[in-house]
Amino acid sequence: MNEKKLVMIGCGTVGQGLLEIIEDKTPNIKLIAISDKLKGSLLDPKGIDIPYMLGILDNDGKVDDYDKASDKAITGLDAIETIKKSNGDIMAEMTYTDIETGEPATSHIKAALKQGMHVTTSNKGPAALYYTKLQKLASDNGVKLFIEGTVMSGTPIFNLARECFAGSKITEVSGILNGTTNYILSKMENEGWDYKDALKKAQELGYAEADPTADVEGHDALAKVVILSNCILGGNIKPEDVPCEGINNITLEDVNEAAENGMRYKLLGSTKIEEDKITASVKPVKLELSNPLAGVGGATNALTFKTDLLGEVTIQGPGAGKIETGYSIFVDIMSILNHE
What we know:
Layout: E1 4-9, H1 13-25, E2 29-36, E3 40-43, H2 50-58, E4 74-75, H3 79-86, E5 90-93, H4 105-114, E6 118-121, H5 124-140, E7 145-146, H6 149-152, H7 157-164, E8 170-176, H8 179-191, H9 195-204, H10 213-216, H11 219-231, H12 252-260, E9 263-274, E10 277-288, E11 301-307, E12 311-317, H13 322-338
Parallel strand pairs: 1-2, 1-5, 5-6, 6-7
Antiparallel strand pairs: 2-3, 3-4, 8-9, 8-11, 9-10, 11-12
Helix pairs in contact: 1-2, 1-13, 3-4, 4-5, 5-11, 8-9
């Protein structure tokens, strides 16, 4: 197999996690370009020394501080210029998520697909808003678009559905898609904390952002439900089609009352297909303790697939993290390499 040339757009926490994995696992790829809005860019057709680049980034340096480049190297390009000039085989898109517009990630993905490059992304914006159109563009150009990292980080949701459930019809997907809210609810039930104290602790631990709105009001889970609806169930829905309710109105009294009745609150994102129609939602739900999702605590994510041949199958794993999300990009790259 010929060595494949990799282009990275975005080199923050996830991108650096990917670089660490590539260095450790040494797949048959050559990193030829990195472009990051804050850290600069480098395009070197002869290849970028990954350990050396990681050393620069680990010391708060920039991509264009790299001083081992060949005489063919170019710096100062923006993301689109990097994609168009790279002649790469695979593009990994790991820029920040904008769930309202999907930009700039959608433009990056379109540019790469039009160049005949395979694409993997962990960005929820393009996957939630334009997945069907982007998959058609990929098909029209004879390449693959993979999005493993958009829902449960490196926990293999889409690979599971595509490979392991081959020939089985998936009719419903439901689960815990946001680790922040799951952590908060677990603290409230297990340690008797009220909502505000549990949220503050989640922020201290880095599970929640300074502005936790996207998590606690369900918007993060909403984006993931749309992705699952369109990518796994074959729908074509938009975020505004999905009723969404977060956990910000759940009180300690609510949690305790549920526990007294043998129930447990979880923020569930759910989608199912009935008579060719998608019905999806995000809302707090009281689950019986016998439900596999009820036993998932802390910042962990989990998803239950309902299938015609296997019944219900539940998978549990991390939904965030440097190496975990970097792995989601890596496993997509390996899928591309293995199917070449």
